[in-house]
Design a protein that fits this description.
Elements (H helix, E strand, L loop, with lengths): L5 H18 L7 H19 L8 H6 L2 E2 L2 E2 L2 H22 L34 H10 L3 H6 L2 H10 L1 H5 L5 H30 L3 H24 L19 H4 L3 H51 L9
Antiparallel strand pairs: 1-2
Length: about 325
């Protein structure tokens, strides 16, 4: 199935451009660290390319397409895609590129079997020093707020919410706020994801598969829970229940009274509509925030449950 991920792909392209600047800067850390980071970017792109053909992602991605029979709001959908990539693809990419006592293979990480390139082509680059991997990963963090806070990112949200923008649901300042919320959660989630990736890499192969499965279930639960409390659908702008009042009494009234009543009705309807828009705006931003928190909890839980697994001897 094809999902509406074009907007995420464009946003991801902005992030990749920032990361490319880092990996091409010869003054940035060591050559092995730059090579490892550049390889990670390739792996993340391959994992993203797997989304359409990964049956394990079907429930999560379909839930970002349609919820309760209606289209999901495009900004919530974009946030959901971003969080999935950071909390799931990143975890598996990190786990597959660290030196371990027992080799981490694609089947251990729920990699789609049909994609034989992921973690195979080009040949994996593994960083022997965990300390260097952690520092390189942390040092690359500024690339994310730089990309998500860019004018191109704000304009992208303007394009995908063009009608919402016209109707005042998500003006520029609110788009900037939405991106700032997403950016802050990206920084938090990627740090937790690195720890989870390390943890998965260090357990036995069978336990790796179990941990990845539990992590994905936690991510899906977070998506579902965040949508229960908010109708994450596109705005229906022309919903004025007051206009459904039977018109017959007005036809019997004097013209001046009809005009006065009509003006009052329109004014009340307009104020009601504006209030509804503002509530929906706050609810949308709250849902994006809650989804990030829920997924962070899923990552933390995956790391905590890893204590139950014995460490392999190598």
């Amino acid at each position: 199935m094809e999902y509406r991920t074009r907007e995420f792909a464009r946003l991801y392209g902005l992030v990749s451009e920032q990361l490319a600047l880092i990996t091409q800067d010869f003054s940035w850390r060591s050559q092995p660290e730059r090579d490892w980071l550049a390889y990670l970017v390739i792996v993340f792109q391959e994992l993203f390319a797997d989304w359409d053909r990964d049956p394990k992602l079907r429930d999560y991605l379909q839930g970002l397409e349609v919820w309760e029979g209606r289209d999901v709001h495009p900004v919530f959908r974009l946030a959901g895609h971003v969080y999935l990539h950071v909390s799931y693809d990143l975890v598996r990419g990190v786990a597959g590129t660290l030196a371990t006592a027992m080799a981490v293979l694609p089947p251990h990480l729920h990699i789609v079997p049909a994609n034989t390139r992921t973690l195979s082509v080009p040949p994996p680059i593994k960083l022997a020093s965990r300390a260097e991997a952690r520092m390189a990963f942390l040092a690359a963090s500024p690339a994310f707020p730089a990309a998500l806070g860019s004018r191109d990112a704000v304009d992208l949200l303007g394009e995908i919410t063009v009608w919402a923008k016209v109707l005042g649901v998500l003006p520029r300042k609110k788009r900037e706020l939405a991106l700032r919320i997403i950016s802050q959660w990206v920084l938090a989630l990627r740090n937790a994801a690195f720890i989870a990736g390390e943890t998965i890499a260090d357990v036995a192969p069978a336990d790796r598969l179990l941990m990845v499965g539990k992590l994905l279930q936690g991510i899906e639960d977070a998506r579902r829970d965040s949508q229960k409390g908010f109708t994450t659908t596109d705005l229906e702008p022309w919903g004025f229940p007051i206009l459904g009042v039977a018109p017959l009494p007005f036809l019997l009234a004097p013209p001046w009274m009809v005009a006065a009543i009509a003006t009052l009705v329109v004014a009340i309807a307009w104020m009601s509509w504006i209030a509804k828009i503002r509530r929906r705006r706050r609810a949308l931003l709250g849902a994006i925030d809650n989804l990030g928190l829920g997924i962070l909890r899923a990552l933390a839980k995956a790391g905590w449950e890893a204590k139950e697994f014995p460490q392999p001897k190598g």
